Amino acid sequence: MKVRVEGTGGPQGWPVPGCACASCGRLDPGHRRPASVLVDDRVRLAPAEPGQAPETATATAPDTPMAPEAPAAPNTATAPGAPITSDAPAGPHAGAEGRLPEGYRELRTSDGCEITTRDGGRLLYAVGPPSGRGEPDPPLDAPFDVVLIDLPDRPERLGDLRRRGRVTPRTRIVAVHLCHRIPSEGELARRLGFWGAETVPDGAVVDTASTPITGGPAHVTGVRHTANAPSPTTTGSAGAAGDQTRAGDPATGSPAPDVTVTNGVRAAQRGGRPRRTLLLGGSRSGKSEEAELRLAAEPEVTYVATGPSGGDDPDWLARVRAHRDRRPAHWRTLETTDLVAVLSGGRGTFLVDGIGTWLAAVFDECGAWPDDARPEDLRRLALGRVEARCAALVDAWRGTRARVVAVSDETGLGVIPATAAGRLFRDALGRLNQALARESEEVALVVAGRIVPLPI
Asked: Which of 83, 120, 170, 428 makes the best surface tag, with the fewest CB within 10 Å?
């Protein structure tokens, strides 16, 4: 199966013509053309237009010009955006019935448009709302060779595909429908690194015979395009800095002969991901959203909620509801303050939100809040219990075999609290953050939704 990704952008491409947003302003016109995919030079797929019924998308979506380096396939004139058949008659309405060439099969499911090719190749085009109709049949459970997916929309869709075995380590996962929902190519690269996906330039050919993506550093992975075509932006560490990969002399960037080369680009490694990540930030900084984004494409995640249930406090209940609604439906939720048991309980993937609410609960459980009526020896005993709980948490964090992303409040950037309780809590949380950071492979500060890595 040969999959030519003619365009990787959203319905209007990226940048969107005439758009004044910061994302579009960072790019040259035509950076990514509107999404269009050609399978085996015979079947074209394109997303639905706004307001268009999903089941008619491939028959009525606007056509997309071929990539400059891609010769047009013969006898492929059909209705705009319709599946292309090599034997379809030419004309503006040809192929409107969605007729496929002999040996090809199309199935619309809640996962997207599934194409099975003559040689048994399996492609999923997951763009737009779920488009399933009728009862699923046996091919629904078969894994895909290639998945072209709108990851900026719902990355949890990929996690669910992994959970159900429809995406395996051998599946090529290519992000499409890219547009100004993403602030920049660098931010796209960063997210794809978490999700284990790749991006390709317009006109790239994704060949399933190529080497599959595995763990390890960003590297060439088998996306073909001509050497003189626009060079893709790398999506490893260099991609975040705006560097580019070019065929030819790696030092000078001089063009190579006009031949088809293997010059794929994928995001930073997924197999080498950090075991322990600590995300710090102030109130409403976006730290919880960042934690959820990092794990969105994982097949199994346990969300560990350490905060109180909220009782009848409408503001707290609204916060809890917003967090719950944001999370993927297939995630498991565990409400507990026994983080030592969670971290010591074996392997898995956990999102802990958060350390600050956990420490507040520990202060409650230990009776450690300042109280002028309490004898000094009892106060010291209570604070000793808090310190012991914090030390046990750090030991469990250091020894865990699970993958954990934890969220905590950065308390040192505000004014000195006016109350004794506030000062006591700030100091305790600051010390705990430091201890957890020392035992973390990755620590970052989230400020206004921007991520600031904190290297050791």
From this structure: 120
